[in-house]
Amino acid sequence: MDRPPTFRRHAVASPHHLASAAGAAVLREGGNAVDAAVATNLVLSTVTPYYCGVGGDLLAIVHDGSAHGLMSAGKAPQGATPAAIQAAVDAAPAPPASLAGTDGMPTFGALAVTVPGATAGWFELLQRWGTRSFGELAQAAIDLAEGGFVVSEKAGGFVDAARANIGDQLGWQRTYGSMVAGESFRQPDLAGTLRTLAAQGPDALYGGVIGERVVAALQASGSSMTLQDLAAHRVEDVGTISGRFRDVEVLELPPPTQGVTALTALGILDELGDPADDPEVFLHRQIEAVRAAMADRAGHLGDPAHMDATPSQLLDRQRLRAIADRIDDDRAAAWPPARPLPGGTAYMCAVDSDGLMVSLIQSNFRGFGSGIVADGTGFGIHDRGAHFRLEAGHPSSIGPGRRPLHTLIPALALRDGAPWLVFGTMGADGQPQTQLQILSHLLDGGQDVATALDAPRFVVDIADGSVGLESRFGPQVVARLERRGHAVRSLAAYEDIAGHAHAIQVTPEGFTGGSDPRSEGGVAGE
Predict the structure, then answer these.
(1) How confident is the model at residue 525 (pLDDT cuts 50, 70, 90)?
(2) Is 198 within the bounds of a domain?
(3) Are 197 and 379 in contact (CB under 8 A)?
């Protein structure tokens, strides 16, 4: 395939070409990487509302000479006790089996909503690093919301899937019911919301007029969410955690994200040594490292205040070595199944000539989220709380002011202490899996960014441990994995579930960027 483009001054990558173009325009007009990331995210909120939006959460790593980890992930309402949720579930009509959450938590609807953090995250990023106002950066998104854009076939598929799950939610139907592939789609209410945020700042959501509408809609559907819950939201500078893989240091965000899971998988693979001569053996090792790490996640991760082990304990190299020692090159292990997490997420990254780098991920969780759309707001509210558990004593048990486990993991890698790669992906459970494969392609396979993003991927289904292989792997690979005891299922050649990853690499010539061919995105810059 063609070599990836190299940009000498700046670059941005995202899962939609309109969003990447908006970010590139900001960079071209003198904005910095943070300005570009926010503008890109706002356009994604408009053209891919099935991935992210005003009602989602936001997490980021910003490198400005040192690494900063920002978490704007909302908490459960103060009234959200296990007993209260269980009583509300018992009183509600029984949902179809496909919509029922695990361990009693609903998958969709108001009970699955935690405080949305994206808006606070945008304003925090701009306050600390930005050079442009929110209103300036939101203009491209407002223009697309008011003037409309043509819905793609891929987008139409996401809408159809959501219609089957949450199409009975009146707010969702009024807002997104006319979103049809091949037709222009306009969102005047969303344009109004963005204008209100530009004029009033984040307080419009966290206690003001937008927040009042959100709370009214949630309470009408059974949530205990209050304006006080919204007003209590804070963006946290949580720092980063790190782990070694080959000759680079990989930075992730700490719990409640699954950043420790990505580092666990990478650490296990690193402990197994250099790649085997047989590529199928090495693929088997990658799969086993992922399966072990995801099972580890199921037992330990959740709200950090309620975990039974710290990230440093989980990532102890002797512990990772012990896990690696259990991996047999000739046989798939019986790793315990974990809890699957579907998701809808958008990852984007941006860099500039001053060395500012942003790795940002934003999500509604499951597609459009909960299905709740407050009157006049034009945006869906996420259902991140669907990953809580109702069982007492678990790190992911629901409770007042607690955060659920987050799949969102923006990443950044350092070589010799300096930024080398900013990268990430959507894909819920697949995020740490895709990160491992991309880094292995780059460091073990010597591939460039574009080739690494294009390469066929596997996806472990952590519910049963089976392995989905994109069809480009070929029948010989399937047969050899099956002989090792893997249950293998076939995926499309370029499967959405395998992630929409994007990356920008620092090279002596400048920035080399890549955007996942599984998405509608692109990398842009100059």
Answers:
(1) very high
(2) yes
(3) no
